[in-house]
Amino acid sequence: MTCAWPGEWLWTDYSQFGIEMQRAGMEALEVERASIGFVLCISVMEHVLARVRRAGLAEFARVLEPDGVCVITLDLMRDSERLWNSALNEQVEPEGEHGSVPDLIAEASDCGLKLENMAPCPARGRRVDVMGLVFRKSAATQPGDDRGDLSAGRPAAASGDPRTSR
Asked: What is 26-124's CATH topology?
């Protein structure tokens, strides 16, 4: 397994279970269109710029098979729907630009991902709340559909440090 930084997230090597791992910016996955049945994004979306989040959602929609499932967890500002706005103890972007749960749901919908379920995590953190969302790619969004396709103008891959993707 290769890793962007030595020692980072080494416990996430799932290859022993036959799962192929890919480390890439979520907005530039090296995966064929409509080739994956399930995407899992655990507490990442809130740590990147809003434009990277939107590009990532479009990319998830592009790689998901019709009727595929996308599970996303989000760290939220306590007692709010605002996305946690910090990465490496620095503000990701101005508060008004960063977004909220309703913003993310609307962005996913624009990509052909329909919200099926949303539930708060019963265990609260000291500084954050956690929300789980389950989306399903519309069966009507077939390969070749323009929604969720970034191939015409794919942004550069994230470096791993969301602050450098500005």
From this structure: Rossmann fold (3.40.50)
**pTM (2 decimals)?**
0.76
The domain ranges of the chain are 26-124
Other Cβ atoms closer than 10 A to 53: 27
Q: Which of 68, 39, 36, 38 is CA-nearest to residue 141? A: 68
Residues 142-165: pLDDT tens digits? 444 444 443 333 333 333 333 333
Burial 65-74, CB ≥16 within 10 A → b, else e: bbebbbebbb
Backbone phi and psi for residue 45, each to the nearest 5 degrees, phi listed first: -50, -35
CA distances in angstroms from 156 to 2, 16, 43, 153, listed in the order given: 20, 30, 21, 9
